[in-house]
Amino acid sequence: MKGVALAQDGYRTPPRPSRRTGERGFTLLEMLIVVALVGIMAGLAVVQFKHTPQKAKEAVLKEDLYILRDIIDQYFTDKGKYPSTLQDLVDAGYIRKIPVDPITGSSESWQIENVPAEEGEDAGGIYDVHSGAPGAGLDGTNYSEW
Fold this sequence. Notes:
The chain is mainly alpha-helical. 38% of the residues lie in helices and 6% in strands.
């Protein structure tokens, strides 16, 4: 018998494969490693996206405040006086409608800052706008200070 190894007792013994040739799949250790890696990646994603909705609302609020302040300045430049209400900006065609405060969800919650009346003059109208939302943003400053 050529090429066949005989055991010490004289019988043929088949070669031992390191793994069963008819079975395919993953070992328990391989599966645990993959599950652990997926869990770590999912945990990182949750932390990354936890504050995303709040960041989006705050970005919209900053943009709305910038636009409102810019429009108030344009109104003053064109008319020589500040608007007495935000609705004056809509009526004059500077904006289509008063924007909704994304934090409070209302267009009625804007806090307006009037120009102080100087001696002998009428009240100056709306000089600045702030959010009427309670609380603080992710950066720690109050929304009313933005």
